[in-house]
Each structure stands twice: as structure tokens, then as C-alpha cells.
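Action item from last week, closing it out:
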Amino acid sequence: MNSLILQSAKLVGRAAVGSFGWQVGRDAHRNFLSILGYVAIVLIGIGGIILPIMAARKIVQWHPGSWGAYFVRVLVPWVLLGALGVVLIIPLAFVFEQVTRIGYPNPLKEMVAVATLLFAGAFTLTGTIWGLSERGERKRSYAILQANEAFLSEHGLREVDGSAVTHLDGNGRRLRLGAIFEQHLEVSPCALVTFDIAS
């Protein structure tokens, strides 16, 4: 009789522990999925905000080169990314409509469309203003780059990638850029020293 009670207690204890473990595992799985859902919502929201802003910014910035290069390298990719951002705004519009309850008598679909357009317009306008504010600086930077390249070419200098040797002159001599002043540059020749090892 005593062993029957002990066996029953062991079975009930194991079942309770197993049930508890099953419940903890199920709760952890549910929590993980809900956390994963929240992370997905946050990432979709961030994408819906950032993509239209960055697309508008990149499209209106000044870009050197031909229209063909601009079309292929800038316009097409950024228009597609901006459109993806507008699609990602739709969940934000649903949340906005539910939180504010604007236009309760209107059908939900129309309010989501209006909210999506408002969000997309606001984000695109922000990116456009940002990109236009950078145009002058980008043009000046490009003009400085062009002037530097013309100066180097006029004096027979070429840039090379290196820390010890930064430039080559017209005769192939290696030079190191020392200092840059407002009206002139200081370069110094790099000596090439070779040692013959006698065997």
C-alpha cells in the first residue's frame, strides 16, 4: 500500500512538473512571438518614416554627371525605395486612424488612404527640404575637387594611394604631401634607398 501511494505521488508530481514546464515553454513561445511582432511593427514604422525622407533627399540633392547616370544611379533606385516606404506607411496610417478616431462616420479604407497620403507627403517634404539645403555645399565641394584635379594635372602631379608616397610628379618621382596652406602646398621628395645584400 505504501509503495502504491509513493508511486502515485511520483506520477502526480511528474505530471505537475511536466505540465508546469509545458506551460512555461508555451508562454515563452507566445511572448517571443508577441515581442517579435512588436519588433516587426517598429521596423516597419521606421522604414515607413526613413525611406520616403531619404529617397526625397537623395533625389533632389545635386549630383554631378550626365542625366543618364543620374537616372540609373539615383532616380530609379530611390524612387523604388521611396515607394516601398509609402507602402510601409500604411500600417502607421491604420494605427493613426485607430488612435485618433478621425472620420469615424467615413469608411476606414478612405481614412487610411488619407492618413497614408498625409504621412507620405510630410516625410517627402522633410526629405526634399533636407536635400535642397545640401545642394550648395555639394556643388562647392565638387567645384573644389575639380579645381584640385586641374591644379594637379597642370603641374604634372598624380595622386597615389599611400601614406609614405602621396603623389608622383611628371617624371615619376615620388613625393610626400607635407602641408597645405591657403596659397600653396608643400611636398617633399621621397628618397628611394636600396641595399645590395652581399652573399
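Closing note: The longest helix spans residues 2-60.
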